[in-house]
Amino acid sequence: MIEHELLGRSSLHVIMERLSKLLFELSNENRLNIIVELEKGAMKLTALSRKLEFTVQETSRHLSRLSGASLVMKNVDGSYHITPLGKQTIEHLSGFEFLANHSRYFKTHTPSLLPREFGSRMGDLVKCEFSDNVMQSFGTVESMMKAAEEYIWIASDYVLSSTLPLLEDAVSHGLEFRTILPEKLHLSAFAESHGPSFSSHGQERMEHRTLKKIDTILVLSEKEAVVAFPTIEGKMDYLGFQTIDELGHMWCKDLFRYYWETAIPILTP
Predict the structure, then answer these.
(1) What DSSP line would sit under 178-195, residue for residue?
(2) Taking phi first (over 0 means left), then psi (-120 to 50 degrees means alpha), and beta for anything else, what does residue 126 get?
(3) Largest alpha-carbon pair distance within the chain?
(4) Which conformational region is residue 248 in: left (phi greater than 0), alpha (psi within -120 to 50 degrees), or beta?
């Protein structure tokens, strides 16, 4: 028993030591710039130093450290290329970049309720634009609905009454409309009391489902997406991110589909 515990501690120590060494090499901004540049293609020492405006000696020293960490490798012709480990490391760093760029937001908002696979893909959101103004966020959603040509998908704990005429117009023009709402809110009842009822001829293009709780707000069209995370108290304040980037849009689309598959269909009259 004690022997197994000692082996476990020893293995953990080795893992943490390797991780610390890797993170140490990545903690230097110049080394990060080098592997980012090498991800674009192999380069020789002189060309790389000229490109990044480093001295040859400085570049050589950093390349030596990166080679020692197996992040880059020297080719037979003297050029350097990024290794598969380096490439995977760069891809994972985009998640840290996204979180670092919006550190103030993530002091008070949490993505911890996301399914694990989406938390590990948060780097896909790195090109998102942040809005710290609720009214601006609402305006973005309304503009998105007006510009949509194929579909509008919404996962939210609330439906703005001002968007209902826009949604009705979208459905009447043949757009697909999907909603995921919390159990406490039914779109049909909300529309009836706060806005125009949807045209009967558009019912076949409308699908509504419900979840016990909405953990992430998503609004998508085929062109762009908006995503907002809950506060650490579990409330939605509608502050979040907008993206037209392909990776960011796909992240939002995949997450909506994930929730859609687990949501329960609700019927509208």
Answers:
(1) EEEEETT--HHHHHHHHS
(2) alpha
(3) 74
(4) alpha
Query: Which pLDDT band holds residue 16 (cuts at 50, 70, 90)?
Result: confident
Tokens standing for residue 188: 């049909």
Cα distance between residue 186 and residue 208, in whole Å: 9
The CA-to-CA distance between both ends of the chain, in Å, stands at 64
Distance CA 254, CA 114 (A): 12
Count CB-CB contacts under 10 A for residue 75.
10
- Average confidence score pLDDT of the chain: 85
Q: Which two tokens stand for residue 120?
A: 């590990």
- HSE toward the beta carbon, residue 198, CA cutoff 13 A: 29
What is the per-residue pLDDT across 178-207, written as a single tens digit (0 to 9) for each? 989 998 765 555 445 444 444 454 556 778
262 membership: H or E segment, kind and range:
helix 246-262
Q: How far apart are CA 141 and CA 134, in angstroms?
A: 11
Backbone angles phi, psi at 145, to 5 degrees: -65, -40
Q: Could you tell me where the beta strands, DSSP code E, fall in 197-238?
A: 206-211, 217-221, 225-228
**Strand-pair partners of 208:** 179, 266
CB atoms within 10 A of CB 252: 26
Domains, in order of start, for the chain? 2-93 (1.10.10.10), 103-266 (3.30.870.10)
The Cα 134–Cα 140 span in angstroms is 10
Q: Which residues pair with 72 in a beta bridge?
A: 82
The pLDDT value given to residue 27: 84
Q: CA 269, CA 192: separation in Å to the nearest integer? A: 11
